Amino acid sequence: MAADTPQSTIDRDIDRFLADGVHYRDLIQIRDEISDWAEWPRAWCAYAAQAERRGDEALAKDAAVTAADEFSRAALYYHYAQYQYFEDAARKEQMQQAKTDAFARAAPLLNPPAEIVAFPFRGIDIKGYLRIPESLEKPPVVILIGGLDTTKEDYRSVSDICLKRGMATFAFDGPGQGETVFKMKAIPDFERTVSAAIDYLQTRAEVDIARIGIVGRGMGGYFVPKAASVDRRIRVLVVWGAVCDLMPMDQQSPATRATLEFIIGTARPKQAEDYLSFLNLHGRTQRINVPTLVIHGGQDRASARYDTAKLIVEGKTVRPMIFVDSGHCCHDVSHIVRPAIGDFLAQHI
User: How confident is the model at residue 2, as a pLDDT?
Assistant: First the structure.
């Protein structure tokens, strides 16, 4: 498990928890209740269950908006229950399932609703959430890609931001991510999953397939530039935490190393490092010819600032958004960064 304590992890990442939708009081109470890492999943699951009960109570009172928020919050708490938990794969999968079940209850109650759909990829079905503005005819669509430990369920805030600006959203977990990791581990050509998702979107007459944007968060900041370099159907790109080269495993935090090993199915750091050598954008950045927003924190411990500089120098139509005193994905300035993502997409899509 991570060398950090549960308390230091919450203190360090508090901006991320709050930006994604964890309530401050819940977060502090969880922090105070957890004595060690063994308590982490139990505490988060308990607070998730409380949110689900509140959702049930709201439904009984015909308060659908409140119910949607509570079920969505429950999904987020189940996500955090399992996101750094690797001791028992079966238990991790159970928490992942609880997360998707909770979000499935929120999905039809959201405004606009989230339609749960699936598209085929190499023998499996990949599940996603499609949300379409109800008052617009054939809006553009933004694909939302998570990273190493972010998933389609914790993209709700960005989805809402895009929808308010007249764009549909499609969030899914690719190989090595979220619920899909239990069916398919990480693959070198993740970009093919993005193309398969676009193939699916082409079957949906409700959206304008000629106007596709894509956002990649964290390690998704590697996946989406690579996808944009090969699939010309992508018209605008947001790199939310650039990853041009994976840092060596001995420079990664214990939690990141454990996650990387899990997504490829090995407990051997050297084997993981060798396999993950595909995580680079060598020769790719020069092929990106679409408007690109690059967001990065100067204090990012997960991705070197060199990665951002490389994208900016080699990109042809890049707008950098750099916060020198911010961390990974700039969660401490989420009130600036997340609306900026929506604005950039709306202006260029």
Answer: 46
CB atoms within 10 A of CB 92: 20
Q: Hey, which residues does 322 pair with through a beta bridge?
A: 296
- What pLDDT was estimated at residue 313? 58
Residue range(s) defining the domain that contains residue 183: 112-245+280-349
Q: Please count the structural domains in the chain.
A: 2
Strand order in the sheet with 318-323: 115-121, 124-131, 168-172, 141-145, 212-217, 234-240, 292-297, 318-323
pLDDT of residue 126: 98
Q: What is the pLDDT of residue 69?
A: 98
Three-state DSSP class for 218? coil
Model-level pTM greater than 0.70?
yes
Q: What is the C-alpha to C-alpha distance for residues 181 and 175, in angstroms, rounded to an integer?
A: 6
Answer yes or no: is 269 within a domain: no
Is 191 found in the same domain as 51?
Answer: no
Q: How far apart are CA 178 and CA 167, in angstroms?
A: 24
- Considering the domain boundaries, does residue 214 fall inside one? yes
Question: What are the residues whose beta carbons fall under 8 Å from the beta carbon of 35, sequence distance 6 or more?
Answer: none
Q: Same domain, yes or no, for 195 and 325? A: yes
**Residue ranges of the chain whose pLDDT lies below 70:** 1-3, 247, 267, 302-316
192: left (phi over 0), alpha (psi -120 to 50) or beta: alpha
Q: CB–CB of 1/84 below 8 Å?
A: yes
Q: Does any domain span residue 176?
A: yes
Q: What is the pLDDT of residue 282?
A: 78
Q: Which residues are CB-neighbours of 15 under 8 A, at least 6 positions away?
A: 327, 331, 332, 334
